[in-house]
Every structure is written in structure tokens, then in C-alpha cells.
Amino acid sequence: MELSEELQQQLEDWSRWQSAGAAVDNSYEVAPEEFYTDVLSLAPGWKIGGWTRWGLTDPVPRACSVCGAEAKPLLTIATTEWAADGESWIPEEDQADPPQQLPGTPPGNFTGLEVARGYDLQLHTCPVAANHPHIELIQ
Ligand SMILES: [Zn+2]
Known about the structure:
The protein contains four helices and four strands. The mean pLDDT is about 90. The protein folds into two domains: about 1-40, no CATH class; about 45-139, no CATH class. It has a four-stranded antiparallel sheet, with no helix packed on it. With about 140 residues, the protein is an alpha+beta fold. Bound molecules: zinc ion. Zinc ion binds near residues 66 and 128.
């Protein structure tokens, strides 16, 4: 959602994926940009830094309330380490031998934390001054 219009159009071009020799399942032919979103772009799970996995809302400005600088992601606290519909982020050893989890927990939820019914909490900080207030974002 934060890519330029030009990059978004390139991702929507099925012939580009084919000419690149990318191992894209033909089920993505209708909307190849979804392959990028589902498999290649933003790693789910807990992380330091990175980018925001928009989905609950469209991208919103994250300006520091003191100086106006664009706040940057510092920490993501995720409900799951991978999306239930995608295997690309599951470590190979876990694909072969899935770790034991408590009954009723979503796949990839190893902490037992559930953020806002299955979303992620991301803390953003001001790149100008660490003592400026942080921003909390649920996505
Ligand atoms: Zn600031």
C-alpha cells in the first residue's frame, strides 16, 4: 500500500513475473500483486524495525506530535509469527515438524498473546529525538 503507483503496476503485470522466472503459482495469474503481498513483501511476526503491514486500515500518517517528523516502526508485537494462509514465512524446520501449541491457538502463536483479536501492535518512535512521544498502531 506504500509502494509507488509505478511499482504497483509492475507487480500487477503477470508477464513480468513470468519473464523473471519467478516461481509463482498460476493461481496468482489473475492478481499477481497478491503473490507479492502474500509471499514476498512484509514478514509477519514480532520484529524490530521493518515496515507496517497495513490491512486493518489504509496507510495513515505517523507524524511525531512534537516535531512533525515521520515516526518509524521500532517494535512489532504480533499475535502470530505467520499468516494462517501463507507458508512462506514458516521456518523450514517448523513446516516439516510443526511445533506443539495449546489447543485453540492460531498457527504461529507461540507467545499466547493476542493483540486486538488477532492483529499486531506496532510502536513507532520519532527519528529526531527518543524522548518524543511514541505512536501505537494496531494493524
Ligand atoms: Zn519528534
